[in-house]
Specification:
The complex is a heterodimer.
Chain A (H helix, E strand, L loop, with lengths): L4 E3 L2 E4 L5 E6 L6 E7 L5 E8 L2 E5 L7 E4 L6 E5 L8 E8 L10 E2 L3 E5 L1
Parallel strand pairs in A: 2-11
Antiparallel strand pairs in A: 1-3, 3-8, 4-5, 4-9, 5-6, 7-8, 9-10, 9-11
Chain B lengths: L8 E5 L4 E6 L8 E7 L6 E6 L2 E4 L4 E4 L5 E6 L8 E8 L13 E6 L1
The chains are: A mainly beta, B mainly beta.
């Protein structure tokens, strides 16, 4: 069964460093997302991406965050200068269709980011 | 988006049917009700989605009354592996697929 894959599974970084989290969405999907979950808290929407541009973003997704689809397969989340509060599990998701009445979001297993 | 309210936690014995009810009083006409499951350190996994009445798949059933202000996820004969957090979400029927997760219901299945 096709799945969303994410790398790395765990990354430890120093505060102020740049981090890139990578995702390979399911191949025929067109809509891509990043969510995050701070330990013990809710899953929070960060950003949605379609046709090589951001569709929507949350308040969390400030200027320190950026997303890119550099080629036909990867979808990346970059955090320019990490802060302690960026420590979380980051989930990538994809779906082939627009509108959540038409199906599910497929989530990856997540990338755990630890900022020291 | 309509806010959802569901129990924080539930316990059940193996083999029992579990019903988790969610209230969404401010659901809009175009909104769909969606349930996700999340195991520790894993991404959420879609369980079921519905608009009204009853929907059933190989995993669960979803019951939605006529006023759509609540919904009930029914898990038949739970096993230990069903221990997880279950999220009820109201998803916009149009626009981007932005799911807004609440705190969910932590289901613990007891042997």
């Amino acid at each position: 069964e096709p799945e969303v894959t994410q790398t790395p599974s765990h990354q430890v970084t120093q505060m102020g460093q740049e981090v890139i989290l990578r995702c390979v969405p399911i191949s025929n999907h067109l809509y891509f997302y990043w969510y995050r979950q701070i330990l013990g808290q809710k899953v929070e929407f960060l950003v949605s991406f379609y046709n090589n541009e951001i569709s929507e973003k949350s308040e969390i997704f400030d200027d320190q965050f950026s997303v890119e689809r550099p080629d036909g397969s990867n979808f990346t989340l970059k955090i320019r200068s990490t802060k302690l509060e960026d420590s979380a599990m980051y989930f990538c998701a994809s779906t082939p269709r627009r509108g959540t009445n038409t199906g599910e979001l497929f989530f990856g297993e997540g990338s755990r980011l630890t900022v020291l | 988006l309509a806010k959802t309210t569901q129990p924080i936690s539930m316990d059940s014995y193996e083999g029992q049917e579990v019903n988790i009810t969610c209230s969404h009083n401010n659901i809009a006409t175009n909104d769909y009700i969606t349930w996700y499951q999340q195991f520790p350190s894993q991404g959420p996994r879609f369980i079921i989605q519905g608009y009204k009445t009853k929907v059933t798949n190989e995993v669960a059933s979803l019951f939605i009354p006529a006023d759509r202000k609540s919904s009930t996820l029914s898990l038949p004969r739970v096993s230990l592996s069903d221990t997880a957090v279950y999220y009820c979400l109201v998803a916009r029927g149009t626009g981007a697929n932005n799911l807004f997760f609440g705190t969910g219901t932590r289901l613990t299945v007891i042997p």
